[in-house]
Amino acid sequence: MRVLRHLYVQVLIGLAAGIVVGYFMPDLGVQMKPLGDTFIRLIKMLITLVIFCTVSIGIARMESLKAVGRVGLKTIVYFEVVTTVALVIGLVVANVLHPGAGLNIDPGTLDPHAVGHYVTEVHNEASTNFLEQIVPNSVIGAFARGDLLQVLLFSVLFGIALSLTSRRSRFLTRVIEQTSDALMTIVEMIMRLAPLGAFGAMAFTVGKYGITTLQQLGLLIVCFYVTSILFIVLVLGTICRWAGVGLWPLLKYLREELLIVLGTSTTESVLPRLMEKLERLGCPKTVVGLVLPTGYSFNLDGAAIYLTMTSLFIAQATNTHLTLWQQLGLLAVLMLTSKGGAGVAGAALVALTATLSTHNIIPVAGITLILGIDRVLNEVRAIVNMIGNAVATIVVARWEGAFDARAAREFLAAPPQEVLRDEPQTQTGDLEDGTSPAFARENSN
C-alpha cells in the first residue's frame, strides 16, 4: 500500500507493535532495548558534525557579524521568558491539583542510595564552573563527547573566521557546505530505521515499567500530560500565531519527528532532520544553527514543567509544607538548574536532584518516588522540548525579519519537499530540476 511508504505511518506501526510486545511479553520487550539505543547512537554520531557545518556556513554567509550577536541576544531573551512561563505554569498546576497529597510517605523509609548516581553527577557538575563547561580542552574532545554547547562555541568561532577570510576561504566554505549535504543524506538513510528504533524503545519502556507503576502514580502522570498539552496549545500556539504560522499545520509538518521523539524519549534523535525541515520552512541557516542547538540546553519547556510539578509532588507526598516564599525560592533555583540539559533521557533527573539539593527543604530521597515513571514522563517532556525549540527558531527568524510567514503558511498547506523526502528516488536531497540544495543556494546568493 502507498500509505505504508510514509515514514510517520511506519513509525506509528513500530510504536503500536512495541506497546503490544512490551505489554504481553514484557521480558522480550526489555530485550528490545538495544534496537532503540542503536538508532539513537546512529543519529548522535552525526549531530556534532551537522551542527558544525550548519552554524559555520550560516555565519560565513551572513551580511555582518553584528547580526550574529543580535540573533544570539534575542535567542537568550526568548528562552528566559518562555521557560519561566513554563516553570510558573507547572508550579500553579501542582498547587491547584495536589498530585502527591494523601500518599503520606515517611522520608526516612526512602532509600537514598537509589538516587546516588544522580547526586554524583550533580557534584561533578558543581565542581566545574560555566566557562569550563562551555569551553573544551580540545576541539576533538568536544566532538568526540558530543557536547553540544562546546561544539556550538567552536562552530561560531569557525564561522566568524570564515566570514573574516571570505575571499581566501571560498573553497573551504564550499567543501563544508557539500559535506553538510552529504551528512543530511546519511541522516535520511538512518531515518529509514526509525520505525525499528521506535519499536525497540517503546517495547522496553512498557516491558520494563509496565502498567502497575502507572496506576500507582497515575494522578501525577495525568496532571503532567494535561499540563504539557495545554502549554503546547495555549502558550506555544499563541506564540505561533504571533509568528504568523498555525500550530496544527506545524505539528502536522513535524509529525514524523514527533513520533520518533515519542518512541525514543530523546530529542537528539531528530535534531539533524529538524534543522533541515526548519530551513525548508524558510528559517535562515544561521538562525536554525544558533537557536536550535542552544535550545537543546537552554530552552527545555517540557523539563521546566516537569521540574516544578515533580518537586511539589515530592513535597506533597512526604508532607513537606512549603510557604509561598519557599516556593518562590524554589522557582528561583529552578530558573538556574533547568538550564544546561543535554536533551537526553535522565538529564531532567540530574536537574531535579540539583534543585532539591540546593533548595534543601524537600528531601532529595523523594526522587525515588518518580524513578519508575520518569521514562513515561520523559516521552511527553521530550515532545514539549522539541516543539518549543521549533517554535523558538521560527520566532527568532520572524523577529529578525528573515522569515516569510505567508510563504511558510503556503508551504505547510502543501509541503512538496516533505513528500519528495518520502520517495526513494529523492533521498539524496536533489531538487526537482536535478540540482542539489547546495548548488541552488550558491547560485541564489
UniProtKB/TrEMBL annotation:
Region annotation (Disordered) ranges: 415-445
Signal peptide limits: none
Record-annotated membrane-spanning stretches: 7-26, 38-59, 71-94, 148-165, 193-211, 217-237, 295-316, 328-354
GO terms classed as biological process: L-aspartate transmembrane transport
Keyword Lipid metabolism: no
Gene3D superfamilies with a match to the protein in the record: Sodium:dicarboxylate symporter
MF-aspect GO terms: fumarate transmembrane transporter activity; malate:proton symporter activity; succinate transmembrane transporter activity
Subcellular localization: Cell membrane
Pfam families per UniProt: SDF
Designated name of the protein: Aerobic C4-dicarboxylate transport protein
Gene name of this polypeptide: dctA_3
